[in-house]
């Protein structure tokens, strides 16, 4: 059925348009945009007077590979959820499992650097499951540097994954911070040759660990400059902490020199990972100026008392999800630092949405509302609504046009060269995918908190994915699973 969205304020960052217009959806595509459009016979007409209509948000950093997680992100305005920082391994299994179960949102994955290394260095067979990925992050055995033969072997694994449709290479370098920098340069060379981006969780900064083999942000800039690869710096706020202004300066200089570096941020002062991660070790926390009390176990809510308890938790269950407070959101200076990071020119909004899980060990649910007792980081529920609240509604730092450029248009453009399907996303041009969010500009806000992370955002009135209604009048449509894969095309 055709759908006409009538009377809204339309924002199209692709055309730089912000004004009153109607939007016609036909066969999952944008058929027309303009004032006073006529509704085709039999079309559904949706009155969106007083609401903002724009391209759905493209989240390039989402670890929610589940129907439940996608539903939470749908209520936050997301229409495409991609796991590009960590990726999955093997890539074909990740796509196949998503297609078999169905997804409310579009989905896609990068090739997993950590998965490829684990296959070769540990001899393990990866299975693309979230639980397996978390377990591996807490395993020290794969973090070492590779021999020349091992390097050749896992680079070949990555090359095959790119040929199978991966959207670039996801590099969890911060989880193997002492590995040989020559390995990362080899990954950049492979990416440049294949014409795909890299998406990197960088290693430590020199301010944090003077013994690091190379400064994490400088490494991105140098590799991009030396190889010509398109290199994306993931969650620059959490990996940089209080040194973020220096890191942003490094990225700015690299851009001025012509390097293809991009970056992303999210609007929270706490990150989330497995408690066995290298940077959660007591000595690493001290280097960051943090204490064990800055670590919270997600499942139990326990705030870690001291180093002895932290070591015990890391030994007992290294894959247990935890929160790490790197900024104090109650302090205005730290809030201002978050806003500066979000406001950095062309900084992309990305959630780093963490998996949802329940005490019985499950990572998904088809119930809605979601069953009680589930846990995650609130950024899985509220990243985009919180960003709009902070940057548009409260501070006025962004116009609505700029907000959609950061949340929809720029993230989609990261993929233009490696995934032709991305070119139809992030804008409302005729022929674009009908991935559309309709929101209330006066009410859009996050509701999730660290203690109650599964509360859906407020203010998304409608959400269309490939022209199918996933949110209608603020209510999730539980029978809607229109998500389609976004895959790379090797050159």
From TrEMBL:
Pfam families: Amidohydro_3. Residues 250-471 form the Amidohydrolase domain. SUPFAM superfamilies: Composite domain of metallo-dependent hydrolases, Metallo-dependent hydrolases. InterPro entries: Amidohydro_3, Metal-dep_hydrolase_composite, Metal_Hydrolase, Metallo-dep_Hydrolases_sf. It comes from the Bacteria. This is Amidohydrolase family protein. It comes from Kutzneria chonburiensis.
């Amino acid at each position: 059925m055709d759908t006409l969205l009538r009377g809204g304020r339309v924002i199209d960052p692709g055309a730089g348009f912000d004004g009153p217009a109607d939007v016609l959806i036909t066969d999952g595509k944008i058929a027309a945009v303009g004032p006073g459009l006529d509704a085709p016979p039999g079309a559904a007409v949706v009155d969106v007077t007083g609401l903002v209509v724009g391209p759905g948000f493209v989240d390039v950093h989402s670890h929610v590979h589940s129907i439940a997680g996608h539903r939470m992100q749908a209520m936050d305005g997301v229409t495409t959820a991609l796991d590009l920082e960590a990726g999955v391994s093997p890539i074909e299994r990740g796509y196949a499992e998503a297609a078999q179960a169905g997804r409310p949102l579009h989905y896609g994955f990068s090739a997993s650097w950590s998965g490829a290394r684990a296959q070769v260095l540990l001899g393990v067979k990866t299975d693309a499951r979230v639980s397996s990925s978390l377990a591996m992050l807490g395993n020290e055995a794969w973090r070492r540097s590779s021999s020349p033969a091992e390097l050749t072997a896992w680079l070949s694994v990555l090359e095959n994954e790119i040929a199978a449709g991966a959207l670039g290479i996801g590099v969890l370098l911060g989880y193997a911070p002492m590995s040989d920098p020559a390995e990362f340069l080899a990954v950049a060379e492979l990416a440049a040759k294949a014409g795909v981006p890299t998406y990197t969780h960088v290693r430590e900064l020199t301010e944090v660990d003077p013994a690091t083999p190379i400064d994490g942000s400088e490494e991105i800039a140098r590799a991009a400059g030396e190889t010509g690869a398109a290199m994306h710096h993931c969650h620059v706020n959490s990996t940089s902490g209080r040194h973020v202004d220096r890191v942003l300066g490094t990225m700015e200089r690299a851009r001025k020199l012509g390097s293809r570096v991009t970056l992303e941020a999210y609007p929270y002062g706490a990150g989330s990972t497995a408690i066995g991660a290298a940077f959660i070790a007591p000595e690493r926390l001290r280097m960051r100026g943090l204490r064990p009390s800055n670590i919270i176990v997600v499942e139990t809510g326990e705030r870690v008392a001291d180093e002895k308890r932290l070591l015990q938790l890391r030994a007992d269950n290294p894959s247990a999800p935890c929160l790490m407070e790197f900024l104090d959101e109650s302090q205005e200076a730290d809030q201002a630092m978050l806003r500066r990071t979000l406001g950095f020119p062309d900084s992309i909004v990305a959630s780093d949405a963490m998996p949802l899980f329940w005490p019985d060990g499950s990572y998904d649910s088809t119930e809605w509302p979601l069953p009680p007792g589930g846990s995650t980081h609130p950024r899985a529920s509220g990243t985009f609504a919180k960003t709009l609240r902070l940057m548009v509604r409260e501070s006025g730092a962004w116009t609505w046009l700029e907000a959609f450029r950061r949340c929809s248009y720029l993230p989609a453009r990261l993929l233009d060269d490696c995934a032709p399907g991305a070119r139809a996303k992030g804008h409302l041009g005729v022929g674009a995918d009908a991935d559309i969010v309709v929101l209330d500009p006066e009410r859009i806000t996050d509701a999730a908190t660290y203690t109650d992370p599964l509360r859906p955002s407020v203010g998304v009135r409608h959400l269309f994915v490939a022209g199918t209604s996933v949110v209608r009048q603020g209510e999730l449509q539980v029978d809607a699973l229109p998500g389609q894969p976004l895959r790379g095309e090797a050159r």
